[in-house]
Design a protein that fits this description.
Largest sheet: 9 strands, mixed
Shape: globular
Structural class: alpha/beta
GO cellular component, one term: cytosol
InterPro entries: Cof, HAD-like_sf, HAD-SF_hydro_IIB, HAD_sf
Strand content: 15-25%
Order of helices and strands: EEHEHEEEHEEEHEHEEHEHEHEH
GO molecular function, one term: magnesium ion binding
Number of strands: 15
Protein name: Cof subfamily of IIB subfamily of haloacid dehalogenase superfamily/HAD-superfamily hydrolase, subfamily IIB
Strand order of the largest sheet: 1-15-14-13-2-3-4-5-6
Low-confidence stretches: 7-18
Keywords: Hydrolase
CATH topology of the largest domain: Rossmann fold
CATH class of the largest domain: Alpha Beta
């Protein structure tokens, strides 16, 4: 595994294709922005420069659509694609469209089996669900910046009857280790899930990950796998880092994420993403 430094040159033979164009997938939280949601000037400038250089830059995030759009705007991306909800929603960006984007793919699933299993094991946890219309339903008072809209409080039965794009579970009463062990014991068949930094769980449809959505876009763009680059820091980035021709983990990433990557850059607080992106210019 390569450790990137300020003097590292991102220049192996497969770094650029004959058109000097790469498909670059960038995670948001912990990669482009820190855990307070702040994007440093260095990261913003490097991302904008790579966009201006003509590469196919894509946001690939666990955030929902409305929480992703401000990041797209910050890096100057108005054409191309973005992956939200850990692969559950794919956008095509086009300034000629009224909203500036359109949803070209949405992967939905029946959340009831997973919700019932989780509620039995984690009765005090908070639950939120993004439905197929983009609304967020939640139990208790559960709100998060990654939702992008205000969650509407509903009873658990209403959540069971919804069609979901994304389900989020958070427990303030369990350590991350206890929470992960509970999820492991439950099994959660028929869905794809990832555990976050805290006692946080994100669930998508079976087989849906950032990597699965990016692979569809790679075919649409006609990009060879060796001309793909991904940068991320979370467990929901593991498949994406393995998918990319060059997978780069942020320096603060957990061990299993570091192990999935080809290279490791600096942490988000040391502008690790900017270090990678500047090496492409």
């Amino acid at each position: 595994m390569t450790i990137l430094t300020d003097s590292s040159v991102a220049g192996i033979d497969d770094q650029r294709n004959e058109n000097h164009k790469l498909m670059i997938a960038l995670d948001v939280d912990g990669t482009l922005v820190d855990h307070d949601g702040h994007m440093s000037p260095g990261v913003r400038e490097a991302a904008r420069a790579v966009v201006a250089d003509g590469h196919d830059v894509l946001i690939a995030t666990g955030r929902s659509l409305n929480a992703t759009l401000p990041v797209i705007e910050q890096i100057g991306l108005d054409r191309g694609y973005a992956v939200c909800c850990n692969g559950g929603v794919t956008l095509r960006l086009d300034p000629s469209l009224e909203a500036g984007y359109e949803i070209i793919h949405k992967a939905t699933f029946d959340p009831a089996p997973a919700l019932r299993a989780l509620r039995d094991r984690l009765p005090s946890a908070k639950y939120a669900l993004e439905d197929e219309a983009g609304n967020f339903l939640s139990t208790e008072r559960f709100q998060d910046a990654s939702f992008g809209v205000e969650a509407v409080g509903v009873d658990f039965q209403t959540m069971l009857e919804a069609t979901a794009v994304r389900v989020v579970v958070f427990s303030s009463e369990n350590t991350p280790e206890e929470f992960s062990e509970a999820i492991r014991q439950i099994g959660l068949a028929g869905v794809t899930y990832s555990v976050g930094w805290t006692a946080w769980l994100d669930i998508a449809a079976a087989g849906v990950t950032k990597a699965s959505a990016l692979e569809q876009l790679r075919h649409r763009l006609g990009t060879h796998r060796r001309h793909t680059l991904a940068v991320g820091d979370g467990r929901n980035d593991i498949e994406m880092l393995g998918w990319a021709g060059r997978g780069v983990a942020m320096g603060q990433a957990p061990e299993e994420v570091l192990a999935a990557a080809d290279e490791v850059t600096a942490s988000v607080y040391d502008d690790g993403a900017a270090l990678v992106l500047r090496g492409l210019l």
